[in-house]
Amino acid sequence: MSIQVILAQALLGLNVGVFYAMLSLGLAVIFGLLNIINFAHGAMYMLGAFIALIGYSLLEQWFGISLQIGFWASLLVAPVIVGILGVLIERLMLKRLYELDHIYGLLLTFGITLILQGLFANYFNVSGTPYPGQPEALSGVVNLGFMYFPTYRLFAIVFSLVVCFATWWAIEHTKLGSRLRAGVENPDLTQAFGLNVPLMVTLTFAFGAGLAGLAGVLAAPIYSVSPLMGADLIIVVFAVVVIGGMGSIMGAILSGLALGLVEGLTKVFYPPAASTVIFFLMVLVLLFRPAGLFGKEK
Amino acid sequence: MTNRILFIIMLVAGLTAPLFAYPVFVMDLLCFALFACAFNLLLGYAGLLSFGHAAFFGGAAYITGYVTKEWGFTPLLGILAGAGFAMVLGAAFGFLAIRRQGIYFAMVTLALAQIIYFLALQMPFTGGENGLQGIPRGHLFGLIDLNNSLAMYYFVFVIFLIGFGIIYRTINSPFGEVLQAIRENESRALSLGYDVDHFKLLAFVISATLAGLAGATKAIIFQFAALTNAHWQTSGEVILMTLVGGLGTVFGPVVGAITVGALSHELSAFGSWVQVILGTIFVVCVMVFRRGIIGEIQRLASRKQG
């Protein structure tokens, strides 16, 4: 087995890893403030990809609007639409469940997942539709010295990493971030200081949802767009979150990247285990470090 | 009192069901009812949300199918083998999952169940996406031919009653009281000297075993172990059934399984819209109908008594 093959799989693994990182980051941000796990996160990722697809090729056919939303515009439009959906879900539904056991939030978002998934399964092929809008500038391959790598995938890796680290920086080093962290630490006290915590909660949920939508747009040109694309991914991301622990933002990012790499390398060494390796790692973490690698025991 | 009346209604309805309904359909409902009751023991009484119960339900079906088809086990032995497998699997999953609480517990069980799903998809004996087909129904005690649908029906009904009885007995035992104490306030139960983890694990194993019993029985009825039974969506369906019927009520899961089962059956012509409708019911239940059908009835009954 040549070193090239291993490096290539590692890069492809990193490519998957940035999606894990973006999704687990969104889950962690939401969990920090709301204490709920958003099961619909996968469905929002799918929604992002479908918004890109519909915006690019179906607006005229479906709505009679002669408008085409290209890839670059989708990177903005899709997260905004998914974010607005997030606002609606939080304000109209989740808000009423905060007083109850947190499992109700999980169950509600599971129901929303079924609705979204079912809606898209009515109109689109379950086996997937290719996204035709990959920009010219990103087609082809780049020579990395040791191998040729698709330009688009390289772009997706770099772009996602920038988004992840920018989010981390904003939370850890800006005024807004410090307020957010205060809200996570002690919501009542933060509110007593005159900060609008309910608004923060809504915007945080919208932001997490938007991240999922953005990841969906980035994934669209790589994987074909399918109603089930989010569901399969989100369960792996749950395992990533259990492994990393949701105590830290950086922890969520790093464990997402690392586990993507591990999965990619498993494809080289023992392909049949590639789809389950992350779950087995989760078992090991539960045995030896139950709170997760970056987690704090509450 | 209400429970006794409901039990008599269930018994009479169960015994007479083949007279007015298609037996295979009722058997399917009975399996899901038992599955939901087993799930309810965990969520409704111990407060533990398992999002991975499909692994026990679907996994047991494969084991039962394999041992009856390839090793020539009798149907009863095959079902016991399936339930036994679910018990061992439940012990392993439970041991891992109770290390985390609340929302993490749900995520861990979901992820663990996904391992079983991928194994069912990839292992050589399971038939991949087609499932394990051609499982024989065989003869019960070597005498009664289960290919006769009435014989099969009453066999399934007896299994259901046994499973239901075990759950009823568990809930109304000192063990069940401790489980409810853990649900209400885990730290207090711990401070009273109860080994909380031990109780949770035992509840998990009982629940997994009975979920396996239901899945194993289903494999014999349909002569088929389906991949969908091990899918996370099945885990979601059993949650929905329990929620619709009434979380933490004895008969709620039975009513919920019949309601959801009949509904999916009626709506099956609408394709993917079924999912949209089930999702909507999920949302409505969580938002405004958290007591479920039986829960609401009990509330009205107790209000009437003053």
TrEMBL record, chain A:
GO biological process: amino acid transport
InterPro entries: ABC_transp_permease (IPR001851), BCAA_transport_permease (IPR052157)
Chain coiled-coil ranges: none
Main localization category: membrane
Cross-referenced Pfam families: BPD_transp_2 (PF02653)
Residues annotated as transmembrane: 6-31, 43-63, 69-90, 102-124, 152-171, 192-222, 234-261, 268-288
UniProt membrane topology term: Multi-pass membrane protein
Keyword presence, Transmembrane: yes
Annotated GO CC locations: plasma membrane
Highest taxon of source: Bacteria
GO molecular function, one term: transmembrane transporter activity
Subcellular location field: Cell inner membrane
Record keywords: Amino-acid transport, Cell membrane, Membrane, Transmembrane, Transmembrane helix, Transport
Family as reported in the entry's similarity comment: Belongs to the binding-protein-dependent transport system permease family. LivHM subfamily.
Protein name: Branched-chain amino acid ABC transporter permease
Organism the protein comes from: Marinobacter guineae
Automatic annotation (TrEMBL), chain B:
InterPro entries registered for this protein in UniProt: ABC_transp_permease, LivM-like
tRNA-binding as UniProt keyword: no
Keyword Cytoplasm carried by entry: no
GO molecular function, one term: branched-chain amino acid transmembrane transporter activity
Bilayer topology annotation: Multi-pass membrane protein
GO cellular component: plasma membrane
Alphabetized CDD domains for the sequence: TM_PBP1_LivM_like
Membrane-crossing segments per the record: 31-64, 76-97, 103-121, 151-171, 201-226, 238-264, 270-289
Cell location: Cell inner membrane
Keywords: Cell membrane, Membrane, Transmembrane, Transmembrane helix
Pfam families: BPD_transp_2 (PF02653)
Protein name: Branched-chain amino acid ABC transporter permease
